[in-house]
Amino acid sequence: SSRRSHWIVFMPGWGGVPAHFRWLARRLSDYGWPVVLLDHPGSNAKAAQELLEGRRSVPGAEVIPDRLADLFAVINAQKQGELDIPGDKFILMGHSLGALTAFLASGAIPEEGLERRCEKALDALSVTNLSQLLQCQIVNIELPINKNFSKPAGIIGINSFGSLLWSSHRSTKIDQPVFLIGGTYDLITPALNEQLGLLLATNPNLLSRALIVE
User: Fold this and answer.
1) Which helix (H) or strand (E) holds 91?
2) Residue among 11, 13, 15, 18 nearest 152 (CA)
3) 153-185 as b/e, with b when 16 or more CB fall inside 10 Å?
4) Mean pLDDT of 155-175
């Protein structure tokens, strides 16, 4: 169909690879959206296999700087004409850790007091929201800042999380509309706690939305 003026960058979650989401990219492409699926060495399916075989330690937030670097490199390559992808503006789309990467890349800096919130949350840690473990590891991570990174036109997050990083109204301080999708069977990033909590932390004037699937 007719070409869109925007293109989409899709980032899989931890242990994910482009093949997992090729069906979605194809469908979006049918509707005119150019889609680039990222592979993240160090936190993709190969890394997950190495974990299962005991050749890699349990991963955490330390992979986020590398994921951000991957994303910045791809956006820059398209801007420089090294990637033959049409579109003046882009949309960041991600699953789980990929969605968190999208928020961080867009300038959402974790709200002050994260360490205090984590102490309280981990005292009553539930197996129904294991994403809190990774969120709290970000206390010890130095996130790279790319001042030349042009902001996306929007963010689409599947099974997103970040309720501890951005716990109050409009605390993400990003100026892009957000569409969040989550399901009630997800025990890693529970739909109500994480999707709705994250939605409330975005700018309400931008018509952001959350889709909760039961």
Assistant:
1) strand 89-95
2) 11
3) bbbbbbbbbbbbbbbeeebbebebbbbbbbeee
4) 93
